[in-house]
Design brief:
Blueprint (H helix, E strand, L loop, with lengths): L2 H12 L10 H18 L3 E2 L1 H8 L3 H13 L3 E5 L7 E5 L1 H25 L1 H24 L4
Antiparallel strand pairs: 1-3, 2-3
Helix pairs in contact: 2-5, 3-4, 5-6
Amino acid sequence: MDYEELAAQLMEATHPKDKRPPLNEVQKQERVRDMTLRYLYENGGSAAPGRLAEFFDVSSARVAKLLGELEQKGFVVREGDSADRRRVTVRLTPAGETYVLDLDAGFRRRLAALLAMLGERDAREMVRLMVRVMEVMETLEEEEPCY
């Protein structure tokens, strides 16, 4: 079996050329916003700005700008440390948590529609294969990180 050829077919199927226009700046900013809010939600609702910069591999200035925007929308608050005034923690607000939960609900609805279109047999097979793919990817990442 030629796994390189299969990989090329899979790449073409999942990333077809000229089928999707590139993201504009607003769309890119929305994705970064959503990923940041999701990160906070999945990590106990708070994080240090430096941790966000490290995780997303962006500058502290970029994180500061993003946090200002998220703060204006009421999605996060920045809290100073009373013991060390240089330390700041970013905390997800209830509005930010609701936003993340709404994103999840919308994504779940779209996935459910996709699975329904596949039919029960193919949907179950797709889920089984995706679980297996994620297990294999985790093993590969441990052996050789791709970043």
